[in-house]
Structure formats: structure tokens, C-alpha cells
Amino acid sequence: MPTTVELTRFHVAPEQVERLLAVRPAMLADFRADRTGFLGARLVRLAEDQWLDIVLWRTPGDLAQSRAKGANLPGISAFFSTIDHVLSSETGTTTEGETPS
Predict the structure, then answer these.
(1) pTM for this model (two decimals)
(2) Which residues contact 49 (CB under 8 A, 6 or more apart)?
(3) Sequential pLDDT tens for the chain (101 residues)
(4) Angle value at C-alpha 91, between 83 and 76, nearest 5 degrees
(5) Could you tell me which CATH class the domain 4-92 is placed in?
(6) Residues 6+ apart with CB under 8 A from 16
(7) Residues facing residue 80 across a β-bridge
(8) Which residues neighbour 10 within 8 Å (Cβ) at sequence distance 6 or greater?
(9) How far apart are CA 66 and CA 25, in angstroms?
(10) InterPro entries in the record, alphabetically (predicted)?
(11) β-strands 38-45, 50-57: how paired?
(12) Three-class SS of the chain
């Protein structure tokens, strides 16, 4: 079954990087506790203070429900507050036969 993939590229000021990494576990815990269909996430550090968050969802509806909730829990809010600005956001699906690990 295909998985919904959310790709968000964002900028974090250098002085916020340590905090971003420190609050990431709480954000993931809040997602696991509060977001139906959340399958996992990978955070990738790119060049020039840019980051890519790759988040896997069971369905497009699960992603839409998550977006509607926004930063409703402390761990999520703390993570989002470290982001200077979002550069891009895209969604897609995996090809058949792939499963998240």
C-alpha cells in the first residue's frame, strides 16, 4: 500500500540549531501520541542552514488532519518555534511495495 510522504524544507538560524535538535524527540513523541496515521519521520540537515523534514503518513487524510491540528501540543510547538521560515512543502506517495522502516 502506498504511503503518503510530506516533504518540508525550512530554514533554521544557526543559534537555533541546538534547540531544534533538543526538542525534536518531544515533537516526535507528541506526533506519535496525537496524530493518527503518523508512521515516522527523518530530519535531514542540508546546506546553508536549511533542513528537510521527511514525514510518513498512512493516508493523505491523516496528513490533512495533522495539518489542521497545527502546533497543538508543547513538543510540536517548541519544534515549530525554532523554524525561521518554511522554504517549501510538498506531498507525494511512495511506490507500491515499499513499507516504512
Answers:
(1) 0.91
(2) 11, 12, 13, 14, 17, 84
(3) 889 999 999 999 999 999 999 999 999 999 999 999 999 999 999 998 999 999 999 999 999 999 999 999 999 999 999 999 999 999 999 986 655 55
(4) 35
(5) alpha beta
(6) 82, 84
(7) none
(8) 50, 51, 53, 83, 84, 85, 86, 87
(9) 18
(10) Dimeric_a/b-barrel
(11) antiparallel
(12) CCCEEEEEEEECCHHHHHHHHHHHHHHHHHHHHHCCCEEEEEEEECCCCEEEEEEEECCHHHHHHHHHHCCCCHHHHHHHHCCCEEEEEEEEECCCCCCCC
The residue type found at 81 is: S
Which cell goes with 98?
Answer: 515499499
Burial bucket for residue 79 (CB in 10 Å: 0-12, 13-18, 19+): buried
Q: Residue with C-alpha cell 525534536?
A: 24
